[in-house]
Amino acid sequence: MSIFLKDINLKGKTALITGATKGLGRGSAIAIAEAGGNIIAIGRNQLELDSLKKEIKKLKLITNHLIAM
To answer: What is the pTM for the complete model shown?
Structure first.
């Protein structure tokens, strides 16, 4: 679990994250998913979004939407 959100419960909350394929956006998506939040991830690269989805699933977390634009 992320050290920054370990005491935060985001169950039932949804976050729209732009730039989710790299850097801060990707890190934010993973951290929010670890805290129980639903993710709507937007990025320009479908392959990177698929990679993000696999990484979150590997952590046994659930994502709702991953959109490439």
So the answer is: 0.81
